[in-house]
Amino acid sequence: MITQFLIVLLIFFTAFYLSQLIRSKIRDFRFASLIRNSLFFIPFLLPLLLTGAPSISFEFEKTFFLSLLLVILISLLGFGILFKEYEVYLNTDVYYLIKPLPLHKLIVMEFSLIGSAIVEEIFYRYALFEMMNKWNAIFSILVISLLFAGVHYLQKDTRKSFTLKTYLILFFISLGWSISYIITGNILIPIIGHLFFNLPNIVITFLQYFVPKKIQQKLEV
């Protein structure tokens, strides 16, 4: 199991580095952003060649709802701590200063925010846990949460905008998402938690498209 785990990490980090390198070269044509964002998903999905795809359970037992509540509360807590970073976007005046986000960029960014929540949870909470199921549970959760926060540091885009506080929050919410997966064995739970954590960015991205456009239309009247 340790050997398989190390092989998967080697495959992941090699693919991750190559995807970063290739993505940096893909620019200045119509579908460049879509292709770049799609390439981001590949390293997270490659381990499924060894583990197989996760099965999704729709059996809503008591543990499902308790775990769902846990991940939503943890995600909301993480968002609450980072609220100051989002607060500026609640002020309509800000949107007078920015150009409307083009529709194709809106689609690509929303695709990235939603897709990353799904593929990252499949990788961290499913694929890695599958290879660590005989390890000590606490140790497994800590390793996966360190990887979760650490890989975000390796991403150029997030490294520019994230602070130490952000990485600590990522580590701690990952602990909660991992616990929820161990309790239920249902990958839907951490995916929902991750989507809730990404929800402010999903909403803000839409506002950057919608509000400046409305302001522009209002000024043209």
TrEMBL record:
Keywords: Hydrolase, Membrane, Transmembrane, Transmembrane helix. Pfam families: Rce1-like (PF02517). It comes from the Bacteria. GO terms for molecular function: hydrolase activity. Coiled coil: none annotated. Residues 105-199 form the CAAX prenyl protease 2/Lysostaphin resistance protein A-like domain. The chain crosses the membrane at residues 6-22, 34-58, 64-83, 135-154, 166-183, 189-211. Its EC number is 3.4.-.-. It is an enzyme of class 3 (hydrolase). This is CPBP family intramembrane glutamic endopeptidase. The lineage of its organism: Bacteria, Bacillati, Bacillota, Bacilli, Bacillales.
